[in-house]
Design goal:
single chain, 233 residues, alpha/beta, Arc Repressor Mutant, subunit A, Oxidized Rhodanese, domain 1, 2 domains, four-stranded parallel beta sheet, 12 helices, 51% helix, globular
């Protein structure tokens, strides 16, 4: 009996390592970014708006909990999720928060749903629309994330370029914008910007990692060479 109790306590202590590792908002943000693909410390630091030293410290905590791995490539250290299950864990945590926390539900309502003129669509719906040639898919994540993996045929229009490039988009087809996941703030902002300019636009309910986990194909570039607007017009 004592041995069984010891085993249980030992397991709980190990599980708590993961809980402690993800108990900081910055580390959750890093997991969210790494769901898109591997990144250098410098890239991650710029994206989350933190110093390289602080970002590196957070990554080391995640690495000690076996949630991320690192690899030295030339002068830079690249970090990646240790397993796809880590991204699935992050998605489950987001879903739990939306279910159990009123503050999360209110934020989702105020930011996401308030910007939806048209209903968001699911990955399976989008796959059908793509097959039927009924939609222009727009990836509004940064170019580095697009290059690492995107929905085949998707046009890369990072959110910070949308205003200057919007008039080059076709108006005779519905646009679906997507970003990092179901709670990514980029695609709702893109949809709001497009609809304010008279485009028919809606967002993908999920993001690129969810699209891939559902078994849909993903296109990658070895070098960041985006499709031009002219190729999709």
């Amino acid at each position: 009996m004592r041995a069984a109790k010891h085993v249980k306590q030992s397991l709980m202590e190990q599980y708590s390592r993961i809980a402690k590792a993800v108990s900081h908002p910055r580390r959750l943000e890093l997991l969210d970014l790494l769901c898109q693909g591997s990144r250098t410390v410098e890239e991650l630091a710029r994206t989350i708006g933190a110093s390289v030293a602080t970002t590196s410290q957070h990554l080391q905590v995640l690495k000690r909990a076996r949630l991320v791995e690192s690899e030295k490539r030339g002068l830079y250290v690249h970090y990646a999720l240790a397993d796809r299950a880590v991204c699935e864990f992050w998605r489950s945590l987001q879903s739990l928060g939306a279910t159990r926390l009123a503050e999360v539900r209110q934020t989702l309502h105020d930011y996401f749903h308030a910007r939806d003129v048209l209903e968001p669509i699911t990955s399976s719906q989008l796959a059908d629309w793509i097959s039927a040639g009924q939609v222009l898919v727009v990836d509004v994540r940064p170019m580095v994330e697009y290059a690492q993996g995107h929905i085949p045929g998707a046009l890369s229009v990072p959110l910070d370029e949308l205003e200057s490039r919007a008039e080059g988009l076709p108006r005779d087809v519905e646009i679906v914008a997507y970003c990092r996941g179901p709670y990514c703030v980029l695609s709702p902002a893109a949809v709001e910007a497009l609809t304010s300019r008279g485009f028919r636009a809606r967002r993908l309910l999920d993001g690129l990692p969810d699209w891939a986990m559902a078994g849909h194909p993903v296109e990658r570039y070895t070098t960041p060479t985006p499709h031009s607007i002219g190729e999709h017009a």
